[in-house]
Specification:
Blueprint lengths: L3 H7 L12 H15 L3 E5 L16 E6 L2 H9 L5 E5 L12 E5 L7 H14 L3 E7 L12 H10 L2 E8 L7 H10 L19 E8 L4
Parallel strand pairs: 1-2, 1-4, 2-3, 4-5
Antiparallel strand pairs: 5-7, 6-7
The structure holds S-adenosylmethionine.
């Protein structure tokens, strides 16, 4: 999936990624992201139907959500959120200037490796605030090539970005017996407190907060 046609087809029915059931991920995301977005101006890349715009980004001073899918953007606009605006755009071409925070939650890996490099080059040229990246760190699976923790560290460093903080978002139940056990444990009462302590091999998604080196 890469083009507007691909993503529009995916959005033929609402909530194609089942985000209404992503409460655990959203709570973990909120813990790491909220302090950076509270009262700030945010550019939310790959905002989809506005699920995160209406939840974890709702305390930002302003949010501009952009997405390549016109169908998703029209659903986000229909939420009529205060302090939020939405635009159909490819995040390889949108301007990054003028925001306190730029967030790419679960969307950068749709770009090829060369496109990701171009994206990060443009980002550091135009933006000197906080950059938030969230993605699976499981390597590649049958769907696509995601990231590894060391791959993200190297990719950000290569572009002059220093990591301020990172946080595990959920367990990877397909990581053998350990993954099944971890996924079961975090569903127990108070089990979510274990998520930050999961070893890397049992983690599905991780969220990184970074900033241009020297601006930390
Ligand atoms: C997996 S969804 C994530 C939605 C939301 N960020 C979340 O995590 O809840 C990925 C979103 O990225 C958007 N997207 C993918 N590539 C894009 C691009 N090059 N420019 C803008 N949006 C893009 C897709 O249309 C889709 O809405």
């Amino acid at each position: 999936m890469r083009t507007a046609i691909d993503f529009d087809a995916h959005y033929s029915s609402p909530d194609p990624w089942g985000l209404k059931h992503a409460g655990r991920r959203d709570r973990a995301l909120g813990k790491v992201i909220t302090p950076y977005v509270d009262g700030r101006s945010v550019l939310e890349l790959g905002c989809g139907e506005g699920h995160l715009t209406s939840t974890i980004f709702s305390r930002a001073k302003s949010v501009k959500g952009i997405d390549i899918s016109a169908i998703a953007v029209s659903r986000a606009q229909a939420l009529d959120l205060p302090s939020a605006s939405f635009e159909v755009s490819d995040f390889l071409t949108v301007s990054f200037a003028g925001y306190d925070v730029i967030a790419a939650i679960e969307c950068l890996y749709y770009l090829s490796a060369a496109e990701q490099d171009a994206f990060l080059q443009k980002l550091v040229r135009e933006h000197d605030g906080v950059f938030i990246l969230s993605a699976p760190i499981i390597g590649a699976n049958e769907h696509r090539s995601y990231y590894t923790h060391s791959g993200i560290v190297q990719m950000l460093a290569r572009h002059g970005l220093s990591i301020l903080q990172w946080r595990n978002l959920n367990a990877y139940w397909r990581a053998g017996i350990g993954g099944i056990a971890a996924a079961a444990m975090i569903r127990l009462p108070f089990g979510e407190a274990l998520i930050p302590h999961l070893p890397e091999a049992l983690v599905y998604q991780r969220c990184y907060v970074a900033r241009r080196t020297g601006n930390t």
